Each structure stands twice: as C-alpha cells, then as structure tokens.
Amino acid sequence: MKHKLLLKARVLVALLFTFPIGFTAKAQTTDAKLLDQPGYYKMQVGDVEVIALSDGTIPLDMGKLLFNEKPETIEKLFKDNFQTTMAESSTNVYLVRTGNKLVLIDAGAGQLLGPTLGKLVNNLAKVGYKPEQIDAILITHFHVDHVGGLMQDGKLTFPNATIYAGQRDIDYWLSEENAKKAPADAKWLFDGAQKSVSPSLKAGKTKALKAGETLFSVIKPLATPGHTPGHTSYILESKGQKMIFLGDIVHAVAVQFAKPAVTIHFDVDSPQAYAQRVKVFNAAASGKYWVAGAHLPFPGTGHIRAEKDHYIWIPANYSTIAQ
Question: Please, which pLDDT band fits residue 21 given cuts at 50, 70 and 90?
C-alpha cells in the first residue's frame, strides 16, 4: 500500500507540474479575471442547517487525470455536458449547524494552491461566522485542498476547533519516516499535510475517528478508503432525513456518474476507490437521501438516481423555503 501511494503521489506531482494552464503544486498563477461569487448556499436537513461554502475553483486537465476509459469517450462526455476536458473543479466545504455547535466538513486549501482557492474564511464571514466560532472540523482526508485551510500565516485558522480524521490518514501522512522515504517530487504532499495538521495535533486538538461513534448527536463517520488510506465520508441524520458528505468519492460529474469505473490519478487505490463509489452511489440512490460532494459543481448538493449501468446526478433545486 505504501509503495502504491508513493507511486500515485509521483504521478500526481508530475501531472500538476505539466498542466498547460500554469498550475503547479507550490504556486498557481492565472491571468483570468476572478468573479466575486456569493460563495454560500443554505439548506435544511431535518433540524440541522447545512451551509455549502465555496473555497473556490481550480482548473484541472481531466484529459490527463482520468483513466480506465478511452480518451475520446471522456472527451465526448465533457462535450455532452457543454464543457471541455480542461474543467474548472469546485472545492466545497460544508458548515453544519447542529444545536449550539458549528462543525465544518473539511477546511479547504488555504494558501497552498493559489489565488483561485482559499476563499473559505471570506465566505464563512458572509454567513455571519468567524473562524474562532468553529467548534470542530471533520476531515475527509489529508490532501492539501482539504486540510490546507487549517493554517493561515503560520497560525491555526480555527483556534478553538477540534480536528477529527481517520486514523489511517493520520498515521500515513503525519509520519516523518514516510515523508523521508517519499520521492523528492512527492515530499510536498507530506509537507502540506504535516504543516497543516501537525500544529493542531501537538496542541491536543486532533482526534482519530472511532468506528461506530456518533459525533454531535447527528453525524456518523463512514470509512471509505481508496482515494486515500483513511478517506472518510460523513453521514448526517436528523428527523428521518439523511445527507452523506462524500469527500472525494467523485471528482468529474460529467464522467464518473455515466462511467463510474473511471478513476482519477489522485486515487491511491483505484479499484478500491471505484468500489467505494459504487457502494456509496447505490446506497444514496436506494435511500433517496441527500448527497454533498467536495468537488461537485458548487454548491455540490443533490440526489443520485441509479440506472442499469450508470448513475444520474440531480442537483438540488434552488430553494428559499426551509423544508
């Protein structure tokens, strides 16, 4: 597993450094004008308010990142969705307000991936909250676009928050031994995770998730390894309604619903990631419950319908009325 993860990390870095848009792992530049989008969307799941918060978007060359399907098929699927394979991918964070607790699902990229990301704190302010008000952050996995926002200018962005994460991701990404053994061009992955998470760990603010536990009365972690060793999705249940926060179960909405076997180079274990995608998609479709995806087009909430050999993504209908 460790060897496979390092191999995938090497491939990921190579891809990032060759993107024609000028994206790199350490710095991202763009000449495009950035739009000032509202960056939040509110909805109700039972008694719980869920607020989608945009951390921004990032251009990804899906033609190079997606595999296990013919390139022409992938290109056609994007074209059928009025997109090109140079896709602008959303990075979504979710704020769960339950009782007197404010809980974030992931923390965005912070300052680690350039100017088109790192919008979380600004959008949090737009819904009336300050970083110090956040009680907990549930991390789906330790890739930098999910944990980079834990730190800002060398300080904890959310100083009063307890960080929860899967034990397998904690053990792997925060291991100094693993970081030392990593190829030179993959060390930034460990460096980003360690700089983002280690300060809260040393401060006693990081906790490993436990199987079967319920957090804040309404949220249960669901181990969904494959994308990373400790990848975790989260299930919110309230008054008979359910929402699953996918994390990185799916990246390319134009492709991976129509062709769920298509995987992405970011996956550590591609077959396992595919198996988890099918398992979660089937459960969401049969249960008819809400889905929230970290990289589905913002706000990333909706439902999944299962067909014979594929799935259909149905974005949430825009609503101003609490259900």
Answer: very low
